[in-house]
Write a structure and sequence with these properties.
The complex is a heterodimer. Chain A is an alpha+beta fold. Chain A contains 4 helices and 12 strands, in the order H-H-H-H-E-E-E-E-E-E-E-E-E-E-E-E. Chain B has one domain: Arp2/3 complex 21 kDa subunit ARPC3, CATH 1.10.1760. Chain B is globular. Classes of the chains: A alpha+beta, B mainly alpha. Chains A and B meet through helix 2, helix 3, strand 1 and strand 2 of A and helix 4, helix 5, helix 7 and helix 8 of B.
């Protein structure tokens, strides 16, 4: 009985196999299209599978990205050596200016804390940062993400904001055990609630796969000026408010364009902001005496 | 007996070379290079590798292998699943159908053939992403990526020839 059934399986399998080989092209094309559908519908399980695959390849990506980073640093240091004198002059001037600002900041901080204690303001939860190295970029024209070397075991959670240098670069969309993926501000799927620093106008910053992002849902006739700072509004509770995002570079009929403050094409390291989400575990005992 | 066993292991290992090299190309293509505007136009080394092996060793670069590599690429780059899988399967099929022409031709013609394949890949990729994102995307970055890939083709091709001679001669 057993041998007969296995025999019939073989007899059935052979033509099936021949058929599969003949139509393998068509089958694989259909499989690809099916995968696109599955990816759209089952995004949660696809994300966790993706995180596992990225985790598995993260050590290799980490290793092969190091020589490239070193080479870039060598080239950069040679260029910097050439400009060392000018750079030194510039930095001295900037340092003098910044010292003045430091005085102002200290004075404001003291004033702020005394006013806060008068008003009994509940301070924002303190932020902690997780540093991570960028080990991969997609190398695709239609996807703007980064893979970094920090994951669940370092405290990375989905939705955390990623900062580099001068400002926000994106948010965590997928977390593996020791690697995670950042969706950049300029990706077509990125949406960040922002507020314009001067006019206090709220909007959504949306990427469109170009180097600049655009502002959505602005009321018509908003008095927006080129050069205005854009910061996170903190709406939705994903990001802390007030993180610098970018600068308005163009206001026209076709919309308002924002250039991210951080140079998104040359991020080597970034910081992930561990921000206590509202409603989860805010520390209820801060220093309001 | 043991010799034949080890010979078989050796042969299997060597036969894995096209697959391994192409996976390496996927990973190398993802190295972050701190040059402004590089990432969106980074050359598609994977396609070069699939093109080369389909012409020279179609027995080792089957549609299923191309599909698996494309799927791995989809997982790693963080885009929608299936796009690169589709791209590589179609490219493999197209090249396989014209293989005789390519095999008999000079390097210049091989290069020209790749330009055609790359052009097809650019359009297919653009169509897939436009459909999946439901938005009018610019084809320009993909076009520049295509041009850059065509430009690096001779260098990558030379590397692949070295690998081919080193592992799969005879």
């Amino acid at each position: 009985m057993k041998s007969r059934s296995s025999g019939s399986v073989i007899r059935l399998a052979a033509p099936l196999r021949a058929l599969a080989q003949r139509f393998s092209f068509l089958l694989l094309v259909l499989a690809s299209i099916a995968l696109m559908m599955v990816g759209k519908i089952e995004s949660v399980s696809v994300d966790s599978a993706r995180a596992r695959v990225t985790d598995a390849f993260a050590p290799i990506l980490d290793a092969i990205s190091r020589p490239a980073a070193t080479a870039a640093r060598v080239v950069e240091s040679v260029v910097e050596l050439e400009n060392a004198f000018d750079e030194n002059q510039r930095l001295k001037a900037e340092n003098a200016r910044l010292l003045q600002w430091k005085q102002a900041a200290l004075r404001l901080e003291a004033e702020n804390s005394s006013l806060r204690s008068l008003l009994r303001v509940r301070p924002d939860p303190s932020l902690t940062y997780i540093a991570a190295r960028v080990i991969a970029t997609p190398g695709s024209s239609f996807v703007r993400t980064l893979v970094v070397t920090a994951g669940k075991r370092d405290g990375v959670r989905k939705g955390q904001a990623a900062l580099a240098g001068a400002g926000l670069v994106g948010r965590v969309i997928e977390v593996g055990e020791w690697s995670s993926r950042i969706l950049l501000l300029t990706d077509i799927n990125a949406r960040v609630p922002v507020v314009l620093a001067n006019t206090r106008q709220r909007a959504i910053l949306a990427g469109d796969n170009s180097d600049q992002a655009k502002l959505l849902y602005l009321p018509p006739e908003s008095p927006i000026q080129v050069g205005e700072q854009v910061v996170t509004s903190g709406d939705g509770g994903l990001f802390p408010s007030g993180l610098p995002v970018g600068v308005v570079t163009a206001v026209s009929e076709r919309g308002v364009r924002v250039l991210p403050s951080a140079d998104l094409s040359r991020i080597e390291h970034l910081r992930l902001v561990d921000f206590g989400l509202p409603g989860t575990d805010l520390d209820p005992s801060p220093e309001w005496k | 007996m043991t010799a034949t066993f080890w010979q078989r292991v050796d042969k299997a290992g060597r036969n894995l070379a096209p697959f391994a090299v192409t996976v390496m190309m996927v990973l190398v293509g993802m190295i972050p290079v701190p040059v402004p505007g590089y990432a969106p136009v980074a050359p598609n080394l994977t396609l070069v590798s699939v093109y080369y092996w389909t012409i020279h060793r179609p027995d080792l670069m089957r549609p299923g292998v191309a599909f698996l590599i494309g799927l791995l690429q989809d997982f790693l780059i963080g885009g929608p699943l299936g796009v690169n899988a589709l791209l590589l399967v179609v490219a493999q099929w197209a090249v396989l159908n014209q293989r005789r022409v390519f095999l008999a031709s000079t390097f210049a013609l091989l290069w020209f053939g790749f330009t055609l394949v790359m052009a097809g890949a650019v359009v297919l990729q653009w169509l897939a992403f436009t459909a999946l994102d439901a938005a009018a995307l610019s084809i320009l970055p993909a076009l520049f990526q295509g041009l850059l890939t065509v430009a690096v083709f001779p260098a990558v091709g030379w590397l692949l020839i070295r690998v081919h001679r080193a592992f799969l001669n005879g």
